[in-house]
């Protein structure tokens, strides 16, 4: 489950704000149980136990099913990720871009792989040739088991401006045929062959539906990823604020018209679990690949 700090996430936080409900989650992490079994284990009456179960079910943490006169409960999620707002004071000017995830310019991928748009799959699934389908620009989700996709990122710097920092955000997960919530994958992100870092995705999530994922996508397919923030600065490169590589902003050639941004699962990776990239109207974050480029105006006043 992927959460942000907003009112709509309050029901989940409220459900977890109880030692009794934490006990219930711990019990259900081991096996399915009926109301009587749970009530006996936590030493409460059945009506009070049902009240706690209802709060957990409302928060999409557990699911319940009827078997005769019994209510059987089971755990629905095994991971909850909370994204906090990323705020950083930068006394620089900046420009923003957003690249649609279907606007890649180069690729070399192996199945399972594919592209998906608002109304269905784009081309044939598990056939890399269709990554060059003209309709790829409509993709809101793409996935591959191994290999890379590349995007061209425009450079709008003027000659009197110096690049100070780059921030990139994108929603990512692993790739498993249909899905697997526990399927680690080492996804490496680089800019012009300078590594920003490698993030190990914990899985390919389908515990709940993505907020923006179209209705036609099967419940057991990739539903959402995790929004990751990649940063290149004068201090090095960072993923979600944690140092990830030694690439400095000075390593990026600011005289070029554009840079090459690559998302890759390497042959040499410890965890080869694929990569899924979510874009507009898919996943939990309605965005493509967002970039913010901070710069300084180096024009100086030469008057004495």
Automatic annotation (TrEMBL):
<keyword id="KW-0238">DNA-binding</keyword>
<keyword id="KW-0805">Transcription regulation</keyword>
<dbReference type="InterPro" id="IPR036390">
    <property type="entry name" value="WH_DNA-bd_sf"/>
</dbReference>
<dbReference type="InterPro" id="IPR051081">
    <property type="entry name" value="HTH_MetalResp_TranReg"/>
</dbReference>
<dbReference type="InterPro" id="IPR011991">
    <property type="entry name" value="ArsR-like_HTH"/>
</dbReference>
<dbReference type="InterPro" id="IPR036388">
    <property type="entry name" value="WH-like_DNA-bd_sf"/>
</dbReference>
<dbReference type="InterPro" id="IPR001845">
    <property type="entry name" value="HTH_ArsR_DNA-bd_dom"/>
</dbReference>
<protein>
    <submittedName>
        <fullName>ArsR/SmtB family transcription factor</fullName>
    </submittedName>
</protein>
<keyword id="KW-0804">Transcription</keyword>
<dbReference type="Pfam" id="PF01022">
    <property type="entry name" value="HTH_5"/>
</dbReference>
<feature type="domain" description="HTH arsR-type">
    <location>
        <begin position="1"/>
        <end position="95"/>
    </location>
</feature>
């Amino acid at each position: 489950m992927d959460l942000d700090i907003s009112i709509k996430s309050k029901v989940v936080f409220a459900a977890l704000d109880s030692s009794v409900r934490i006990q219930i989650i711990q019990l259900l992490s081991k096996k399915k149980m009926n109301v009587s079994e749970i009530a006996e284990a936590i030493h409460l009456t059945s009506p009070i136990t049902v009240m706690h179960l209802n709060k957990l079910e409302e928060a999409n943490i557990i699911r319940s099913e009827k078997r005769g006169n019994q209510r059987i409960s089971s755990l629905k999620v095994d991971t909850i990720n909370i994204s906090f707002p990323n705020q950083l004071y930068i006394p620089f000017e900046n420009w923003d871009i957003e690249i649609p995830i279907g606007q890649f310019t180069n690729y070399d991928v192996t199945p399972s792989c594919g592209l998906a748009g608002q109304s269905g799959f784009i081309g044939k699934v598990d056939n890399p040739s269709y990554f060059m389908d003209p309709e790829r620009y409509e993709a809101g989700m793409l996935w591959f088991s191994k290999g890379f996709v590349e995007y061209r990122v425009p450079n709008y710097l003027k000659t009197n401006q110096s690049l100070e920092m780059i921030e990139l955000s994108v929603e990512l997960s692993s790739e498993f045929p249909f899905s697997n919530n526990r399927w680690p994958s080492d996804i490496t992100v680089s800019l012009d062959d300078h590594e920003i870092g490698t993030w190990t995705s914990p899985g390919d999530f389908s515990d709940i539906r993505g907020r923006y994922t179209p209705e036609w996508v099967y419940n057991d397919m990739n539903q959402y990823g995790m929004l990751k923030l990649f940063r290149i600065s004068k201090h090095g490169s960072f993923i979600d604020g944690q140092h990830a590589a030694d690439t400095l902003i000075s390593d990026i050639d600011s005289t070029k018209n554009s840079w090459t941004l690559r998302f890759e699962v390497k042959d040499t990776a410890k965890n080869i679990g694929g990569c899924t990239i979510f874009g507009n109207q898919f996943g939990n974050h309605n965005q493509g690949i967002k970039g913010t480029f901070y710069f300084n105006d180096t024009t100086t006043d030469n008057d004495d």
